[in-house]
């Protein structure tokens, strides 16, 4: 009783992440063909085998480094076909305290969360515009909604990425190419392993995956995962800077 | 024994006691859940040990495959199912989960990956099946799934008026693929051990013919309801449980002999449809006592246990009796006999009462299930798990520095 393929393809940049893996599984279970991209093709192959044996869809694996901008154009040309949807899950949380004095570390965080994801999605936008179809999904973070002492290097990069996605959406709306901004709050993944996370505000990777699926289906512009985060961030953005600077949240 | 040293692997934490709590560290492996390979012609599946039976069923039942053995909840991992060598309602026919495992990949405490199979290293393989995680962390499991024509079970209910009739009915039900008895633990005297016996068979495609149109693989899994908060400790008492049991027995008896089709998931995992069911037992929680009594001694030992339980009158309505065959692993719980699982809300005096039950179990040549245990004594354990010395030797060879330890292994001195 195969569900069969629906002939569509989704590319996941950052396929080794828990959120990327869950997203690929979610789409595969609904008949999508999968392209997994990341730095570690060997690790990706394990996920490709997993998805293929669960869902019997074609899964391909592609080497990709978000910090290597010169390899981006050849990367896209090297894909067996231009996907219908590209999701960028790539990110690097890093260590805020270290990033305050270690400039290489700070640079890696800024580039992995903003420059790299922006450049590759921008390039996909060109291909999609030429073809006249496609959907772009960027996974950013609530941390980009306001800079906070505890993670502003990461947060500011996510803020840049969020602004980039918003601009891209504005530009491409006229060409019927849709851009979705995904802002998770806390998600229980490798990135947050060992952190104490508040249960009711923390999503499982599968929740992010199904939120992305729903957003793609409904062509939402921007989503928060868990929705309560939209309210929380509204509150946090509303605090006047004069007060905010004294808080530790 | 090295004080509070050592760690243990943990799956979905469905063991009732202290088996999946490390002496010092606990390694959660439920995120390791990739399917590695599946052969749809033979049903041979290799998957990472954190894959849950819930996921496995969601993925493979629509393809016509079902786990060869399932416990009473599907929220368990392959690793947990192997480590406890879990039994289902078909142990009398098909053995335990471990009987369907062809090979295992384990990570030893020294950080080595070792493949275990009955052909390559039978002793270490048999120590790991049912070994409660104490030989190493199971990383991958290769097992054979059962081919099924539909996702439905044909269920038939039999009525037994007392414990003797129940044992006879379970023996007669041996021919059924699945069978399990629900026992009324409050009924006493002539009614002691009155039971409903639920037999089940995988329904064939032809069984689905009928007036009602049924999907070959039904979509199920919705929650009926959740228990919103801890109920007061007095919720379970002789009168509430007695009234519930009497009503349940009557309604079951009225359906007897009418075969009924139900989704496999509802047949095997009724508790999964009730969120946080454990809250029924109040904030002090519950203690389960699951024992197995050999065939020969059961006709006297089981009535003796049941009359102690009936006199207390507060065992929950979730009391089941199943028939078991021999266990595969060195520390596997099953032995040819009947297993009785009793749930009690924790309260003062209960532990002493359970010790009384243990004495009957040990004298009868039975034992207590480690996956459900949090309180048996070392003496009870050592008297009943006879392969313990062999197990210790195998554990030593895989974990020479004793780095693997759970609260259970500390408590029982394994
Ligand atoms: C409602 C309910 C009904 C149940 N019904 C039955 C039943 O009918 N029959 C039955 O046999 N059991 C039954 N059980 C018990 C359950 O099947 C077992 O306790 C099972 O081991 C739980 O699996 P888990 O993944 O949650 O493992 P955990 O509870 O996390 O761990 C159980 C044991 O397995 C070990 N373990 C887990 N993963 C690994 C691994 N990867 N490598 C090495 N060791 C590992 C742990 O160290 C521990 O010793 C039931 C439990 C519940 C809650
Ligand atoms: N977890 C949370 O609470 C949370 C909250 C909000 C937003 N997010 C965002 O969600 C996304 C996924 O995060 P996660 O939690 O699943 O964490 P994760 O597992 O650490 O995911 C990060 C992913 O980015 C990839 N990556 C990092 N640098 C790369 C590079 N130079 N080139 C290519 N790939 C690179 C990683 O690949 P490797 O495997 O090769 O390292 C990994 O796949 C991230 O963008 C994160 O910022 C997470």
TrEMBL record, chain A:
Lineage start: Bacteria, Pseudomonadati, Pseudomonadota, Alphaproteobacteria, Rhodospirillales
Presence of keyword Zinc-finger: no
Protein keywords: Oxidoreductase
Domain of life: Bacteria
Protein's name according to its UniProt entry: SDR family oxidoreductase
Keyword Oxidoreductase: yes
Family according to the record: Belongs to the short-chain dehydrogenases/reductases (SDR) family.
Pfam families assigned: adh_short
């Amino acid at each position: 009783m195969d569900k069969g393929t629906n002939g569509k393809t989704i590319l996941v940049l950052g396929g080794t992440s828990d959120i990327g893996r869950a997203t690929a599984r979610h789409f595969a279970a609904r008949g999508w063909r999968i392209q997994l991209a990341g730095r570690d093709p060997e690790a990706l192959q394990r996920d490709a085998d997993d998805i293929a044996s669960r869902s019997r869809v074609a899964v391909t694996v592609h080497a990709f480094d978000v910090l290597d901008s010169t390899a981006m154009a050849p990367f896209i040309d090297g894909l067996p076909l231009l996907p219908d949807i590209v999701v960028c899950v790539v990110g690097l949380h890093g260590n805020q305290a270290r990033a305050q004095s270690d400039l290489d570390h700070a640079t890696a965080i800024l580039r992995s969360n903003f420059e790299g994801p922006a450049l590759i999605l921008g390039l996909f936008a060109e291909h999609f515009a030429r073809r006249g179809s496609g959907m772009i999904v960027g996974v950013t973070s609530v941390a980009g909604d306001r800079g906070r002492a505890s993670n502003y290097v990461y947060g500011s990069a996510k803020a840049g990425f969020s602004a980039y996605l918003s601009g891209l959406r504005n530009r491409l709306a006229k060409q019927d190419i849709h851009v979705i901004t995904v802002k998770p709050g806390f998600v229980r993944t490798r990135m947050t392993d060992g952190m104490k996370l508040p249960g009711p505000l923390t999503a499982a990777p599968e929740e992010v995956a199904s939120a992305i699926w729903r957003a793609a289906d409904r062509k939402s512009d921007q989503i928060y995962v868990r929705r309560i985060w939209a309210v929380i961030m509204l509150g946090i953005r509303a605090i006047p800077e004069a007060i905010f600077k004294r808080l530790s949240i | 024994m090295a004080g509070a040293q050592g760690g243990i692997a943990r799956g979905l934490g469905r063991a009732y006691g202290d088996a999946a709590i490390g002496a010092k560290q606990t390694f959660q492996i439920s995120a390791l859940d990739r399917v590695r390979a599946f052969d749809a012609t033979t049903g041979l599946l290799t998957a990472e040990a954190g894959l849950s039976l819930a996921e496995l069923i969601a993925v493979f039942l629509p393809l016509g495959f079902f786990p060869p053995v399932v416990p009473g909840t599907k929220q368990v991992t392959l690793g947990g199912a192997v480590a406890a060598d879990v039994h289902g309602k078909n142990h009398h026919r098909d053995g335990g989960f471990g009987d369907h495992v062809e090979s295992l990949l384990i990570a030893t405490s020294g950080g080595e990956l070792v493949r275990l199979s009955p052909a390559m290293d039978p002793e270490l393989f048999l120590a790991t099946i049912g070994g409660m995680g104490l030989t190493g962390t199971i990383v991958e499991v290769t097992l054979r799934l059962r081919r099924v024509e539909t996702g439905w079970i044909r269920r038939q209910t039999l009525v037994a008026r007392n414990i003797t009739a129940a044992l006879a009915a379970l023996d007669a039900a041996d021919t059924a693929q699945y069978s399990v008895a629900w026992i009324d633990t409050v009924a006493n005297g002539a009614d002691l051990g009155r039971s409903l016996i639920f037999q089940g068979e995988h329904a064939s495609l032809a069984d689905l013919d009928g007036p009602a149109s049924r999907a070959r693989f039904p979509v199920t899994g919705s929650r009926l309801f959740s228990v919103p908060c801890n109920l007061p400790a007095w919720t379970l008492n002789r009168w509430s449980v007695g009234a519930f049991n009497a009503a349940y027995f009557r309604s079951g008896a009225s359906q007897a002999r009418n075969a009924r089709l139900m989704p496999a998931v509802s047949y095997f995992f009724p508790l999964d449809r009730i969120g946080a069911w454990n809250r029924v037992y109040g904030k002090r929680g519950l203690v389960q006592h699951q024992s197995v009594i050999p065939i020969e001694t059961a006709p006297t030992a089981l009535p003796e246990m049941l009359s102690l339980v009936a006199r207390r009158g507060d065992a929950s309505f979730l009391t089941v009796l199943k028939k078991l065959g021999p266990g595969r692993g060195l520390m596997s719980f099953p032995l040819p006999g009947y297993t009785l699982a009793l749930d009690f809300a924790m309260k003062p005096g209960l532990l002493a009462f359970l010790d009384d039950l243990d004495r009957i179990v040990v004298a009868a040549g039975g034992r207590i299930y480690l996956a459900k245990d949090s309180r048996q004594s070392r003496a009870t354990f050592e008297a009943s798990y006879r392969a313990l010395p062999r197990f210790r030797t195998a554990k030593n060879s895989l974990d020479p520095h004793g780095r693997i330890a759970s609260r259970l292994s500390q408590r029982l001195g394994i």
